[in-house]
Specification:
The protein has 247 residues and is of the alpha+beta class. 23% of the residues lie in helices and 28% in strands. 32% of the residues are buried.
């Protein structure tokens, strides 16, 4: 007889609670229960038989999958709730109609394109370290930037004992007191671009993500969101299918 049980974090992502990675964090924090008992990493559930709750609320299957892009302003944290009372991206998407969560993150001081959805499986593939999804950033740094600094950034910077993957960095604009750079990276390590710039003695003044996997922010105003169009969504689905076998 076929085993109908699946990993708990996969079930949570399929129900639109969070990506698999975030679901694991919820489980580790003791916020998930299965049939009244606190769950642990490695637990499996039968979606049709087991009762799963997160923070005391029943987990139910998603009826409609939603995919949006948000132009995140600076000053907002990329989470749905914050214990410190800071502004969150959830405050900006209250009128979407369903609960959506961020695909990846942008730090509080950064701005730009953030994809949000209730499709946990797609989110898991797009954010998995092995997927190497390209992301493009417009980065303004203080002063002038040398070719040597650009070459260092492109070849990889040691962060916490591990070198960043090779990436593309080029000058978009030079002004007397600042330089605008374009970064195209295929990783998503914590505050990666800021830490890369710090390593080559560059001070970041502004950091804005403009593109993820060919989906562009365009002219969407700060703090606003819109649904992904059919072409954009199909692009992400096609990419996720090509990456799925590697996860």
């Amino acid at each position: 007889m076929k085993d109908s049980k699946i990993r708990l974090q996969k079930h949570l992502s399929q129900c639109g609670i969070a990506s698999r990675r975030k679901a694991e964090e919820l489980i580790e924090a003791g916020k998930v229960k299965v049939n009244g008992k606190v769950a642990t990493i490695g637990d499996k559930v039968d979606p049709k038989r087991d009762k799963v709750t997160v923070r005391g609320k029943n987990v139910v299957a998603v009826n409609e999958k939603v995919y949006i892009m948000l132009h995140k302003p600076r000053g907002f944290v990329t989470t749905l709730s914050d214990e410190l009372g800071r502004k969150t991206v959830a405050d900006l998407v209250k009128d979407v109609g369903v609960k959506v969560f961020p695909v990846g993150r942008l730090d509080r001081d950064s701005e730009g394109l953030l994809i949000m959805t209730n499709d946990g499986e797609l989110a898991n593939i797009l954010t998995h370290p092995s997927s190497h999804i390209n992301k493009t950033y417009r980065v303004t740094v203080k002063g002038q930037v040398s070719e040597e600094q650009i070459n260092e950034l492109c070849s990889g910077i040691d962060i916490d004992g591990r070198k960043t993957l090779p990436c593309d960095v080029f000058v978009m604009e030079r002004k007397e007191d600042r330089t605008v750079l374009c970064f195209i990276i295929s990783e998503g390590r914590n505050r990666q671009i800021r830490r890369m710039c710090e390593a080559v003695k560059l001070e970041v003044l502004r950091l804005k993500r403009t593109e993820i996997a060919g989906v562009k922010l365009g002219m969407l105003p700060q703090g606003s969101w819109r649904n992904l169009n059919e072409r954009e969504l199909q692009r992400l689905i096609n990419i996720s299918k090509s990456k799925e076998e590697n996860i």
